[in-house]
Amino acid sequence: MKDLTMEKLVNHCKTVGFVYRGSDIYDGLANTWDYGPVGVELKNNIKKVWWKRFVQENDNTFGVDAAILMNPRVWEASGHTTSFADPKMDCKECKRRERADNLIADYAKKHKIDIVVDTMSNEEMEAFIAKHKVACPTCGKCNWSSIRQFNLMFETSRGVTDESQNKIYLRPETAQGEFVNFLNVQRTSRAKIPFGIAQIGKAFRNEITPGNFIFRTIEFEQMEHQFFCKEEDSMKFYEEYKQKALNFLLDLGFKKEELRFHDHDKLAFYAAAACDIEYLFPMGWSEVNGIHNRTNYDLSRHQEFSGKAMTYLDPTTNEKFVPYDIEYSIGCDRLLLACLCNAYDEQKLDGGDTRIVMHFHPAIAPYKVAVLPLQKDLNDKAREIYKSLQKQFMVTIDEAGSIGKRYRRQDQIGTPLCLTVDFDTLNDGTVTLRDRDTMEQVRVKTEDVAKYVQEKIAF
Ligand code: GAP
C-alpha cells in the first residue's frame, strides 16, 4: 500500500474540508467527526451510487426510511437489550476502559500468535490476558478488572413528566426498520418473494474504543439491504450478495488485492452463514461490510414479540412461511474512509513538485468540474459556463492564483475535470478539459461539455 498513515489522511481531510473533528472549537468529542463542504458531497455521492446499485438497478428492491426512535420492544425482540454488548475491562491503575477482545487481537497480531478471538469466552480472554500480561495501552501496567458486558445502545427517555418517562433507544442499526416494515412493504408494493428492503440512515453505538478516525464512531450511517427469500434459495442468494458487494467495491475503483473475504468462524446461533469484506486500511485489514444469512430469525422474533404473523403466502404453491433473510450491511462512513484511503496519492511531477491527488471514481468525486478562467477578463464568460453546468452537476469555480496552483487545489479534492476558459473560448466557443489522473488536455466545444462530463461520471 502507498505510504499513507491515518495521521496524514486526517490532516489532509481537515486541510481541504473533507472531515473535521466534531465540536472542534470545544476540543472535540471522542469518536465524533463532522463532514465539511467536500466531505458532505463525497458522502452524498457514495449514498447515491449505493442506492442506484442496490435499489434502482436491483430487481424487486424497495426503499424505506424508518424512524430512528423505535418502540423499545423492537430491541427486546432483536436481542439488542440483552446481548448487544462488548466485553469491557477497566485498567485499575489509570481507569482506562478497553475492549478485552481488541486488546487480545492487537497483542496476538504484534506477537504473531495465531488465535481466533471471536470464539473465546470471557474466562478464556481473562486467562489469556493474565498469562501474557497484556498491558494497558495508556499506562503500560497490567492490572485489569474482570470482564463485564457493556451494552452499546444509547438510552434516552420520552415523555414530559417523570411519571410518564419511558426508556427508549437510539437505534444501533438500521436493519430493524426494515424488518418491522416487512409486512407494510410487501403489501403496499405487492412484492413477491424474493424481494429486498433497503435503507440508508443513522445508527448510534456507545463505542469506547479509539476509532481510527471515522472507522469506528458513536454516530454513523449505515446502508443496509435485507433480501427475503425461501429457505432453500438462501445460500444461493448469500453467495450472490457476497459477489454483488465485492463487485460494488471493485467498480468504485478498489484494487482486488486490497480486498478480501473473511468468513466467520463463530456464527450467531441463528445464522446459517456470515462473512465480511475486509479492506487493507493503513492500520491493517479491517471490515468494510458484512453479508449474513440470518435465516428467518429476525422476522420470527418480531412475530413472537408483536403477535403479528410475519408470514408470506406463496401465490403459486399456497405455502405460508416466514421468509429467510440475506443481510448486506455497509457503513457509509467506513466506506467513505476506505474511498479516501484508496484515492489518496502523492505524485512527483517533472519540475520536482509533488501533487496530492485523490483518484476518486468520478461518480463520487465532490465536484465534477472546476471552471478556471485563465485571466480576469474571462471571468464573465467562465461564470456563464459555470452557471449553465451547475444545473446538472456539482461544479466549482476558481478565479484566483496561478493555473498550476488551481489545478493542485482541485487535484487534492479529487475533481476529475478542470475546464479552462481562455481567449479562444470567446472566438470559437471551445474550452480545455484537463483530466485529473492523466493530466492530459482536450479541446471541447462548450455545448458538448455536459455530455462529456456525463459520460465521465457514469457508474
Ligand atoms: N445490521 C447488521 C449490522 O449492523 P454490523 O457488523 O454491526 O452489522 C454493519 O455493522 C456495518 O456498519 C459494518 O460493517 C461497518 O461498515 C458499519 N459500522 C458498524 N459499527 C460502526 C461504527 N461504530 N462506526 C462506523 N461504522 C460502523
Can you walk me through this structure?
The protein is of the alpha+beta class and 459 residues long. The chain has three domains: 267 residues, BirA Bifunctional Protein, domain 2 (2-Layer Sandwich), CATH 3.30.930.10; 65 residues, Herpes Virus-1, CATH 3.30.40.230; 90 residues, Anticodon-binding domain (Rossmann fold, 3-Layer(aba) Sandwich). 33% of the residues lie in helices and 26% in strands. The chain contains 15 helices and 23 strands. Helix 3 crosses helix 10 and helix 5 packs across helix 6. The two termini are 25 Å apart. The relative contact order is 0.12. Glycyl-adenosine-5'-phosphate (GAP) binds next to strand 10, strand 13, strand 16 and helix 11.
Topology:
Blueprint: H1 6-16, E1 19-21, E2 33-35, H2 37-56, E3 61-63, H3 72-78, H4 80-83, E4 85-90, E5 97-99, H5 100-110, H6 122-132, E6 148-151, E7 155-158, E8 166-169, H7 175-179, H8 182-188, E9 195-204, E10 219-229, H9 234-251, E11 259-263, E12 273-281, E13 284-293, H10 297-306, E14 312-313, E15 320-321, E16 324-331, H11 332-343, E17 344-348, E18 354-358, E19 369-373, H12 379-390, E20 395-397, H13 403-411, E21 417-421, H14 423-428, E22 430-435, E23 441-445, H15 449-456
Helix pairs in contact: 2-11, 3-10, 5-6
Residues 173, 175, 205, 207, 216-217, 220, 222, 224, 287-290, 327, 329-331, 333-334 line the site of glycyl-adenosine-5'-phosphate.
